[in-house]
What we know:
Strand content: 5-15%
Oligomer: single chain
Helix content: 25-40%
Radius of gyration: 16 Å
Number of strands: 5
Shape: globular
Bound molecules: iron/sulfur cluster
Order of helices and strands: HEHHHEHEHHEEHH
CATH class: Alpha Beta
Structural class: alpha/beta
Amino acid sequence: MKKNCLEIVRQKCESCTGCALAKTRNNVVFSDGDASTAKIVLIGEAPGEMEDETGRPFVGRAGQLLTEFLTEAGISRDRDVYMINTVKCRPPENRVPTDEEKAACRKFLDAQIDIIKPDAIILCGATALKSFVNLDKKQTISKVRGQWMTVTVDGVEYKAMTIFHPSYLLRNHSMADGSPRRLMQEDLRNIKNTILPDVDNISSGNNITFGSLVNV
Ligand code: SF4
């Protein structure tokens, strides 16, 4: 049922010319993950070059690093997470999508969440966070990340947490206590233990070395 509904939304999305990004895209990047099993919707910023080429979100270096972190936390990218972006078409030069582009694409984002009805939403990076929360000047992603909050989509409240975007982690390699990578690890373990407490861990445990998939 979910898959049928999502397929209808996907078809509309793939023919969408609702903003200027339609002119420069190669592919609409609708989603990745199994809608019938995913308990988490993860929302990123926008497709990049690899995503535009393949039509799948989070497949470039940042996406590979995110997959590593999810696996280490015991979260299966294929089974547990439905991945989407705030806009479905790549902004030129990987710039941040404008408010107008995000607003034009919002109907697809809201429809995806409404159909999945996840147990939790992960807001991955500042652009996703700002799509749901009005931040005051003192609230940076470093201060907001890791905290459970509530976001509302079409009148339904969802548990949500903000995490760093993996692109940021590609520029911050340290795994020292308090480092962005260590905080990412803690946040994803928190999400796993809260949302998927009964799911067996799928990682190899303490031996995982970040960067094994991505040469950073
Ligand atoms: S980004 Fe969204 S609104 Fe803009 S053309 Fe693509 S699908 Fe349509």
